[in-house]
Amino acid sequence: MKKILLLWLGLLFVGVGFFISCKQSDSQKNKESILKGTTTILVDETVKPLIEDQIAVFESTYKAKIILEAKSEKELIQSLLKDTSSVVIMSRELNADELKFFEKVKIKPKTTKFASDAIALISNKKELDTLIAMKDVVAFLKGENQTRVKGLVFDNPNSSTVRYFTTLAGVKEVPKEGVYSFKSNEEVVKFVAENEGMIGVIGVNWLLQPTANINEYLTNINVLDVEGLNKNSYFAPSQNNLAEGTYPLARDLFIINCQGYSGLGMGFASFLAGEIGQRVVLKSGLLPVTIPGRKILIKNKLK
């Protein structure tokens, strides 16, 4: 009799637990959908101004609240794998090891490319030479003797720009001497504006949409034209050169959604890739994946 009673109590607890779980799941779905609710999105700090604009337009259109956190690329991945946030915006897709992690937890990440970005190289205004060849930058990163590059300034040692340049140079890490790193692109601009001989490495988005902190230093820097490896022409990090594929330090931007359900991550990704989101990219000075169309109204009579 006692065993039967314990069995019934066990079944009762299981049933209650399942009921509560279903209620919590339903509650979560009611709180968030693709166009409403609240979620946190992590963004690569080098493209923060663009995503701030996108969120402002998205929130003004839908009943949604997006909390934006800007971090370095390595910090983004760590947060994604620790489930601190399930949606990230960065300049690369997930690698094989990262995809395997999500396979184990039965989640298939959805990756959406929505823009092309550029890494800009800047120097102090007192420097007369406004051209730089990538072969000189690569030589500096490899520790070879050459005079054009005396020092590189990055926004963060864990930044996507550091990863981009070490990959390009084929080195595991940047040199210990002559390389400086801070916590933001704003600090890079300030440092270069105040120090001659340094070359700053930043996301061009910060120059196209400068904050008040950056504005006061822009008159003291040059944006350098860059010659690619095995090339003999120099190009500026402009929207036109991104479109023509001539700027050598171009990269794609992706939103990666690992929510595993139809939430704001899906809605915001669709927004970025949609007409309004692509217009915001175009206005920012970066290159959208699809160029928004322009409607021309022809009138037969003038009023």
UniProtKB/TrEMBL annotation:
<protein>
    <submittedName>
        <fullName>Phosphate ABC transporter substrate-binding protein</fullName>
    </submittedName>
</protein>
<feature type="domain" description="PBP">
    <location>
        <begin position="37"/>
        <end position="274"/>
    </location>
</feature>
<dbReference type="Pfam" id="PF12849">
    <property type="entry name" value="PBP_like_2"/>
</dbReference>
<dbReference type="InterPro" id="IPR024370">
    <property type="entry name" value="PBP_domain"/>
</dbReference>
<keyword id="KW-0732">Signal</keyword>
<dbReference type="InterPro" id="IPR050811">
    <property type="entry name" value="Phosphate_ABC_transporter"/>
</dbReference>
